[in-house]
Design goal:
This protein has about 140 residues and is an alpha+beta fold. Helices cover about 30% and strands about 15% of the residues. The protein contains three helices and six strands. The chain has helices spanning about 5-20, 35-55, 65-75; strands spanning about 60-65, 95, 105-110, 115, 130-135, 140.
Length: about 140
């Protein structure tokens, strides 16, 4: 559990409140999940994106899902092989939102890289892009 008095809690809380369109949402708690395997992949992506794009595209994005899916995420990270197959308006993949009103249960740090507008026929981003988006709040 992240303590309310820490800078990390305050930063995430402020981001959550500023990204919601609905007043009255209450942040109940923040639980930090650490996994060395994920962190190694995160650092590799960080280096790749920094070298290739010459800019930081790291964003705090929100994801909502059922508890069973959350348990799988904790164990296996976000795995495209387990991504939903319905609700694929912007392509197949794991949907995140920059707006906590849309997906408010989980926040993660993501590299969005170079984006393109997605569509329902896409099963991955085009070769020259890293992710797809609705060009507003949604990122895959």
């Amino acid at each position: 559990m992240v303590q309310k008095t820490t800078e990390e809690y305050q930063s995430i809380s402020a981001h959550f409140q500023s990204s919601t369109k609905s007043n009255g949402k209450e942040l109940i708690r923040i639980e930090l999940i650490k996994n060395e395997q994920w962190y190694v992949k995160y650092r590799a992506h960080f280096q790749d994106f920094a070298t290739r794009l010459k800019q930081n595209t790291e964003r705090h994005l929100y994801h909502g899902c059922a508890q069973t899916a959350a348990d799988a995420i904790i164990k296996n990270c976000f795995d495209r092989d387990f991504a939903g197959k319905n609700g694929t308006v912007y392509g197949e993949g794991i949907y995140f939102s920059s707006n906590s009103s849309y997906s408010h249960k989980y926040v993660s740090t993501n590299f969005i890289g170079k984006t393109t507008k997605g569509n329902s026929s896409m099963n991955t981003a085009l070769v020259e892009f890293d992710s797809t988006t609705d060009e507003n709040y949604i990122f895959l």
